[in-house]
Amino acid sequence: MTPPNEAATADALYEDVLPGSKHWSFVLRRGTLLELVDLEGGANVGMLFYNPQNPLERYNAPDTLKCQHTFKLTRGNCLYSDMGRIFCSIVRDDVGWHDTVCGNSTRKSIAERWGEKSYQDFRNDWTRSGHDSFLVELAKYGLGRRDLAANVNWFSKVAIDDDGTMLFDPKSSHAGATVGLRFEMETLVLLHTCPHPLDPSPEYPRRPVKYRISCADPVPEDDYCRSFRPENGRGFENNRIYHLCTR
């Protein structure tokens, strides 16, 4: 567990609560800290990243895992684009394991597990999927289905047993658990609070998440994320070169 003041920040520039089964998006500047707080425990936050200057550059889950020799994400890990640059670094993590291989819930999977509830009949209690939530947010920026990529699922732990079966841990995240993301380049962030595709809850889960935006501390040369893996040093160098050319 990371001490609460590990990523020392100034007062929040903005904060709000995103209820369960909702979605949102925003552009975060370089040097911004985004903190996500699981308010009740057992939350899931699906998230995607894009370069707002060139949306063809987006989060690349395979490269993120491969270059850091990991199956999970936790403090110290960086989230890479398909251009070898770093969107953000995980500077705080109270959970220790976040999924980036299981993807999204879909309209079909939601209906099969919890039944289909339309907006026309249930209004704000209708059942949304992560897939459809991302499509709604993508459309706000002129993007669509072909721009979807493999996403991160914050607060969700999925391990693998000896025969390769994926095991979802519904108790991996506790109430108050926090994840802190320091953004290393300007990034379009899409997120939703729809259920993880492997969530076994008997009822459709609606778990709220608080998000807080503030200014991050400057990145020192001995920064934990920069030195977490040798590959991260190269990623930070790619960012440095990129920002030389975009000033």
Helix/strand-derived category reads alpha+beta
How many helices in DSSP terms?
Answer: 6
Poorly predicted runs: 1-9
User: Largest sheet, described in full?
Assistant: 6 strands, antiparallel
- Relative helix content: 10-25%
| Helix and strand element order | EEEEEHEEHHHEEEEEEHH
Radius of gyration: 17 Å
Oligomer: single chain
Major sheet: order of its strands? 1-13-3-11-7-6
Q: Total number of β-strand segments?
A: 13
What fraction strand?
25-35%
Overall 3D geometry? globular
Please, what is the average pLDDT? 94
Instruction: State the end-to-end distance.
Output: 37 Å
What does this structure look like?
- The chain has about 250 residues and is an alpha+beta fold.
- It has one domain (about 15-245).
- It has helices spanning about 60-65, 105-115, 120, 130-140, 225-230, 230-245; strands at about 15-20, 25-30, 30-40, 45-50, 55-60, 80, 85-95, 150-155, 155-160, 165-170, 180-185, 185-190, 210-215.
- The strands form 3 sheets. It has a 6-stranded antiparallel β-sheet with strand order 1-13-3-11-7-6. Strands 2, 4, 5, 8 and 12 form a 5-stranded antiparallel β-sheet that branches.
- A hairpin with a 2-residue loop joins β4 and β5.
- The longest helix is centred in the C-terminal third of the chain and has 16 residues, at about 230-245.
- It is globular.
